[in-house]
Every structure is written in structure tokens, then in C-alpha cells.
Amino acid sequence: MYFLNVRGETRSPSFSSSPAIRASPQMTWLSLLHLVLHATIPGAVALLFFRPHWKQAWLIMFSTMLVDLDHLLADPIYDPNRCGIGFHPLHTYPAIAAYVLLLVPRVSRLLALGLVIHMALDALDCVLI
Description:
Oligomer: single chain
Number of domains: 1
Shape: globular
């Protein structure tokens, strides 16, 4: 399985050949802010638009952080200088298009909204790196 990153390079996800996981680069304040926004933006959306059930709405939208499990396929797992959009399998343009389409059915709307917010925040990260 190969992925095309934003620089147009083809890359195969692989795991480190050593038994110990390779050390990731240091987390910066911008990386920390990114993680905080992944919790607070869905919370703000839940409070503004789903006030009667905001806790449940926030929990559903926050659960979309699980989409980042696809980072486990990358080497290194975390790279603050890598744009995840177009690189990780669940962060590809076809996947994002599917998330947008999932906004239409009411039953999947909260989950899709969380995924779209997640991808927008990750895309913002791409602009900032």
C-alpha cells in the first residue's frame, strides 16, 4: 500500500525495523495547541448547536479522534513537519469526501461533523507547517 504525500512523493508506510519504537520529534507548543483544538472546537460546536444534549454531541464528535489510529501505519508515527492530509489513509481526499457526504443522513451527522472538523483542523496544521 502506497501513499502520496503533499510533496508528491510516494511512500509506503512501514514500521521501524528495530524492536524499540523510534523516538519521535519533540512536541512543540503549536502541536499542543492543535491537540487542544481537537477537543475544544467540537465542544464549542456542541454547545452552540446541540445545547440540550451538548455532552453527548461533544463525546460523539470527540470520538472521531480515533481516525488518527491510521498514524500507526506511518514511520515515524508522529512528525510535526508532516501534513497528514493526503498522507494517512483516513486523511485522504476520497475519505474526506465520504465524511462530507455522511453529513447528509441525520443518523450519521454528528459523527461526520466531528470528522469534518477533525480534517479541517488537520488541514489548518498543513498550512501552518
